[in-house]
Amino acid sequence: MSTPIDYYFTPQSPWTYLGHERFVRMARATGAAVRVLPVDFGKIFPVSGGLPLGQRAPQRQAYRLVELQRFSEHLQMPLNRQPKYFPVGGDPAARLITAVDQQDGSAAAMALGGAIFRAVWAEERDIASEQVLAEILDAAGLDAARLAQSRSPEVQQLYEAHTQQAVDAGVFGAPSYVVAGEIFWGQDRLDLLEKKLAGK
Fold this sequence. Notes:
Strand content: 5-15%
Oligomer: single chain
């Protein structure tokens, strides 16, 4: 069995969306176990020195849009660089993914995550809406009860624990893939992660 991969992300990250399906395929091909860990970067940024998008310098914001277009075209993935529902709060979706991971396992959580990322970046849907999350759950064939479970104190505590785990691991951006303590930050590091998993 391969070393587990800790997969830290936030549901509203376009970079997580761009890398997710490739990461799913890579993990499946290598037999790697994935620990699905949506986290709250609103609590990580003050520790890591990061800034929310709206507080970044105009040059950085402009370049981000250029890079999103480049990667969207390079990967041949549909992406609205400035979607209707963005910025959007990611906590409800993050807790839902956590609840599904807890109840249905990592494969179901990964599939749900992919659907949520697409909802933001390809489908112009509001992932802060309970109705939208309920629709995504239903389309994924998952139990509707997961939505209520995602609001439980237990899931909130788990979400907070995963966020602290990310801080302790030195994570500062999404997505981050951590293997045996080594961080691979960003979907553009997936080739390097693949080499690590292959022992190269």
